[in-house]
């Protein structure tokens, strides 16, 4: 009995535990269901709010119904004409946004444009009253027929528009499609007047598939059926270029016939005339080149004794070679024309080359000596007497001093020295009238009379008798050398020979000491005179070299000025005063100029 009671009590306890667990599980499930239901309510409220907010803008049943009706039976592969023989007219225009790059070497112009295209599609017409007053519809361009207008002179892989934007369709069937595009068009560059050049780049558009009988191409501003439109590109949203000015943008329609077909193929060519802004190249190329060419002139102002003439010329030539290499990296490798800057660099290099040759010749003249070269009379007359006056060269100051002293004291300067100074006023021997050379160049003075007052006195002093007329005998004639200088032994022999053969002197009447004194005095005088003559001729050659330097300094200065002006003044753009049209027609440019306070409010509000 007790066992049964225990079992029943255990069963009751187990039943209570199970009942409690069931209640707990049910309560947890209810809590979870409450959380899920609350989250669902929040999501439904958010979705209903969004649907209510976009109800009037997105959920346009009239536009959706119109789109479904138009596209239900539309085929984008068929040309939108009522009859197959009808001609579809496509109007085209360009709106230039930015001139990205004009690559002179690659001959490619990169532009950012909007291609404006307009045509009529009879399949896309509707009555606005049947569709809630909807007059315009925006549809993806991939779902309607598009004219295959491509850029003929394309220099890139993409011939047509790559960004397919939406097209605007009105209730009359007019389709307007203005996709943006970045075109790289080939442009034949004319580098003849670089960097003062103007370039004419064109963009030729036409249908790639259809001929003129199927698709006729006209300019969007062509209202009078003319083939030439002066302002063929819209510049209202153009951003100014920092390198180029746009001078003109005409558009011309042409029809071309090919040998294979009888049908015409129309195209529209947009010509863009660009004028380069030359400030960058003027500062970085032209001014340094002109400065270097002026240095080639200073080669002749550099003294020959410095030994730097040829080194300076070679350094200038290396600098010009560097600028020529820079120019080669800019211009295209064409042989049709040489750029203006290239002509100037070649001219300057020729000038420097000639200056090197002339400098070498001048140095050769400067270091000549009497032992190797003899100066001709015409050289002395032309380069010492005539050219210095014509070249406005200042004569040395000592010439005037010698002439003044000669005028005041003619007896102090011998005739021979005066003659030499008149012919060679720049020589060192003329700088000091009291030099030993000038003294020994004079005639030998007679011996003092008191030494030979009587024959007895002469006999007592010298032993041998001296003739009475020795005091008044004519002096020895000074020895001269013509041509190359005479060495010391040869001079001594000539002196002794003259003493031996002189008709006015009798050696047996001279004392031995006096004979030696006369001999050594005449030898010293002859040696000094030879050295002075040697130095004077060397100074003559140096002066001739200095005259040549001054002569070529003037010649190269005139050649440099005339050559620089003659080369750079050939550019027609230097005389062109035409105002660029990009500033005139661009609203963006006007806003920028107004922000920079370059134009007033009245000019900003002008209707373009």
Model description:
With 608 residues, the chain is an alpha+beta fold. The chain has three domains: 64-277, Neurotransmitter-gated ion-channel ligand-binding domain (Acetylcholine Binding Protein, Chain: A, Distorted Sandwich); 283-367; 377-553, no CATH class. It has helices spanning 2-53, 61-72, 279-298, 309-330, 340-366, 377-390, 397-408, 415-423, 436-441, 455-462, 488-501, 512-568, 581-585, 587-595, 601-604, and strands spanning 88-103, 108-125, 136-140, 149-151, 166-170, 172-177, 180-186, 198-207, 215-219, 228-229, 233-234, 244-248, 251-256, 265-276. Helix 4 (309-330) runs antiparallel to helix 5 (340-366). InterPro entries: Neur_chan_lig-bd, Neur_chan_lig-bd_sf, Neur_channel, Neuro-gated_channel_TM_sf, Neuro_actylchol_rec, Neurotrans-gated_channel_TM, Neurotransmitter_ion_chnl_CS, Nicotinic_acetylcholine_rcpt. GO terms for molecular function: acetylcholine-gated monoatomic cation-selective channel activity; transmembrane signaling receptor activity. Residues 285-568 form the Neurotransmitter-gated ion-channel transmembrane domain.
How would you summarize what this structure contains?
With 608 residues, this protein is of the alpha+beta class.
Observed structural traits:
transmembrane, cell membrane, alpha+beta, 3 domains, receptor, ligand-gated ion channel, Acetylcholine Binding Protein, Chain: A, signal, single chain
Mean pLDDT across every amino acid position:
76
Highest CATH level, the class of the largest domain: Mainly Beta
The residue fraction in helices comes out at 40-55%
CATH topology of the largest domain: Acetylcholine Binding Protein, Chain: A
Structural class: alpha+beta
- Count of all domains: 3
Largest sheet: 8 strands, mixed
Strand-residue fraction? 15-25%
CATH architecture name of the largest domain: Distorted Sandwich
Distance between the termini: 116 Å
- Oligomer designation: single chain
CATH superfamily of the largest domain: Neurotransmitter-gated ion-channel ligand-binding domain
Pattern of helices and strands:
HHEEEEEEEEEEEEEEHHHHHHHHHHHHH
Q: Total strand count, please?
A: 14
How big is the Rg? Answer: 54 Å
Q: Which residue ranges are poorly predicted, with pLDDT under 50 across at least 5 consecutive positions?
A: 29-36, 54-59, 397-492
Principal-axes shape call = elongated
Q: Give the helix tally.
A: 15
Membrane topology: Multi-pass membrane protein
GO biological process, one term: synaptic transmission, cholinergic
GO molecular function: acetylcholine-gated monoatomic cation-selective channel activity; transmembrane signaling receptor activity
Family: Belongs to the ligand-gated ion channel (TC 1.A.9) family. Acetylcholine receptor (TC 1.A.9.1) subfamily.
